[in-house]
Design goal:
disordered C terminus; mainly alpha; 73% helix; single chain; elongated; 4 helices
Length: 123
């Protein structure tokens, strides 16, 4: 195998492993639900995409064929993770999950207040 291809594969695998590790660490150590929600949806998703892309390159070079199922897994992961995080955050807001004092009750200022949409109807 070409040393440059091996280097590219190693970079993807190491980057992916690092992001998965950071996402897992953030899931354990962040203080409340809303901040904890970012770790698996951002870092871990990017890490798993890096691992799958590195694996896809490896098998493409060794077996001389396109590995479609790993590409589909990567695309499915990148599409569904933000949607599921959004739904979990909306559910947490609906159930009034506890937030940190330093992040709760902050009002919008200036132009951001003018662009704000009206609140949802409670009926």
């Amino acid at each position: 195998m070409n040393p440059i291809v091996e280097l590219i594969i190693c970079v993807f695998l190491l980057m992916g492993g690092l992001f998965v590790l950071l996402g897992s660490f953030g899931l354990l150590k962040l203080p409340d639900f809303y901040t904890r929600l970012h770790a698996p949806t951002k870092a871990t998703t990017l890490g798993l995409a890096g691992l799958l892309i590195g694996s896809m390159i490896y098998f493409f070079v060794n077996e001389q064929r396109l590995v479609v199922h790993e590409l589909l897994i990567t695309l499915f992961l990148l599409i569904t993770a933000p949607v599921s995080a959004h739904m979990m955050a909306k559910t947490a807001l609906h159930h009034k999950i506890r937030v940190l004092k330093r992040t709760s009750g902050q009002e919008l200022t200036g132009a951001a207040r003018e662009r704000r949409e009206p609140p949802f109807d409670s009926a």
